[in-house]
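Hi V.,

Quick status before I head out on leave. The structure for the redesign project is tokenized and pasted below; the design run finished overnight.
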């Protein structure tokens, strides 16, 4: 079984507008889209939170992740702000004619049907595919519930290890540089970084183990193994 692994959020589907709306829910103020796309959680919180809010940083952090992971119903409603990344669906439809696709996502199991529905609505293939998702407990560390819990990198490695032995991984596409050491460890020969130019540099992807970096999905059209 020859397989291509693909991340979902900010690789296939842009989450920027949803994240911006989540910050409005959390902080009660507008956070520019530019900040959402260039800063991490801590940087954004420290820049836009009030002095009073900063005294309750841990509570705000947990609330943030509860909404992101759709443990709070507000998070489910805000999924409507997601947008498909141009040409990603068309490329995956073509790949799916020759390969099994594995969607490997940090979204959690409680959003499985929501995620499948969203993929279908945006034109991504769901037949001859597999959807591997995190568990809520994988976020115990970032939600301040268990500081010794698994890291998100650990969680992604665990999911990859569940794939059957006859699964031949030939390519992966992801937007997050820090996951690429895992892909290299699992021996995936073609490791493609989808550049998030406002946050990372191409060198960061290469240094972490990517074999090449692309700017957009157009560069992968007609690019079959």
């Amino acid at each position: 079984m020859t397989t291509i692994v693909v991340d979902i959020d900010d690789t296939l589907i842009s989450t920027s507008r949803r994240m911006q709306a989540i910050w409005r829910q959390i902080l009660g103020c507008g956070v520019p889209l530019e900040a959402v796309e260039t800063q991490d959680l801590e940087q954004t919180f420290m820049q836009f939170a009030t002095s009073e809010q900063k005294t309750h940083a841990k509570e705000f952090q947990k609330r943030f992740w509860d909404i992101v992971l759709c443990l709070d119903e507000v998070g489910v409603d805000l999924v409507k702000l997601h947008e498909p990344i141009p040409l990603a669906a068309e490329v995956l439809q073509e790949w799916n004619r020759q390969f099994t696709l594995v969607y490997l996502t940090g979204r959690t199991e409680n959003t499985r049907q929501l995620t499948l529905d969203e993929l279908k609505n945006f034109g991504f293939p769901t037949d001859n595919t597999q959807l591997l998702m995190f568990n809520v407990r994988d976020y115990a560390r970032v939600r301040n519930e268990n500081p010794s819990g698994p890291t998100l990198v650990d969680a992604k490695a665990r999911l990859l290890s569940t794939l059957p032995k006859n699964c031949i991984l030939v390519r992966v596409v992801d937007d997050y540089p820090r996951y690429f050491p895992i892909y290299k460890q699992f021996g995936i020969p073609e490791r493609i970084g989808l550049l998030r130019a406002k946050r990372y540099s191409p060198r960061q992807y290469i240094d972490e183990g990517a074999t090449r970096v692309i700017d957009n999905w157009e560069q992968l059209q007609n690019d079959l193994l």
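Above is the designed sequence. The chain has two domains: 2-14+83-220, 16-81.

G. will cover questions while I'm gone.

Best,
W.
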